[in-house]
Amino acid sequence: IDEIEALSSIYGEDWCVVDEDEKIYCIKIGDCLDQPKWSLCLQVILPPGYPAAEPPIYQLNAPWLRGQDYVQLANSLEEIYLQNLGESIIYLWVEKIREVLIEKAQSSGPEPDIKKTTEEADEADGDDFLLEYQPIQEDPIQMLNCLASESQEGDEELPPIHHGNPITDRRSTFQAHLAPVVTPRQVKRVLEKLYENKKIASATHNIYAYRIFCEDKQTFLQDCEDDGETAAGGRLLHLMQILNVQNVLVVVSRWYGGILLGPDRFKHINNCARSVLVE
């Protein structure tokens, strides 16, 4: 309670109470310029065990924040938590995020590159449940080519692919697909195999994340892809980090049904992924 009162007085109108009973709060953070170019919204839920035994549950929301930017920022926040176990950390998180935004403002000339997501864009044929088959605009497989080429093991076996149960809400459908992987080449092969399926290839978004544990270096090789659904890949990877899963690729396909779902779409993406991981 003392922490919340302090944060409220420090950040004033940038601090917002979303739900007092559930301890859900939101803070808008900018880069400190007179006309901020870079800003994002940090939403936190303080669980009953915070700060003594549990970390805050958080979301980072900004149109420009996706892929590697999201992963790097999330990793920074988790490091702060681990360095300050048992202590109140929201202020440290906010100032770390502000530091990153100021660095971006100082190092970049143009405005943030904001790619419209499907939910923000006008949908021409929103009433059709399945869009006509069309190639993925930014082929995620291209991104894996250089990593996969480093693997010297030739044509590796295609891992088994497990398909989770679909979730449908207001005519949007979400389905997760999972495969065990130990090399980037296997990630590439699984993605290629999935995109051979005309229905999966026609999904509005195919969001994915993978984590591979490298025994020799004792580190994780991990990456994620939003496929146009801003920050969804980073959230998916964050879920995998929380569940401490390794040597696995998760892909969540979403077929947009013409009705905006707002934040619920992230809940469905995570629930799909969680179900398939637990199975």
TrEMBL record:
Classification via InterPro entries: Impact (IPR023582), Impact_N (IPR001498), Impact_N_sf (IPR036956), Ribosomal_Su5_D2-typ_SF (IPR020568), RWD_dom (IPR006575), UBQ-conjugating_enzyme/RWD (IPR016135), UPF0029_Impact_CS (IPR020569)
Keyword field: Cytoplasm, Repressor, Stress response, Translation regulation
Lineage top rank: taxon: Eukaryota
Stored SUPFAM superfamilies: Ribosomal protein S5 domain 2-like, UBC-like
Cellular-component GO terms for this entry: cytoplasm
Subcellular location(s) of the protein: Cytoplasm
Pfam families, alphabetized: Impact_N, RWD
Membrane-crossing segments per the record: none
Key word Repressor present: yes
Family assignment from sequence similarity: Belongs to the IMPACT family.
Subunit record text: Interacts with GCN1; prevents the interaction of GCN1 with EIF2AK4/GCN2 and inhibits EIF2AK4/GCN2 kinase activity. Interaction with RPL39; this interaction occurs in a GCN1-independent manner. Associates with ribosomes; this interaction occurs in a GCN1-independent manner. Associates with actin; this interaction occurs in a GCN1-independent manner.
Protein name: IMPCT protein
Organism: Tricholaema leucomelas
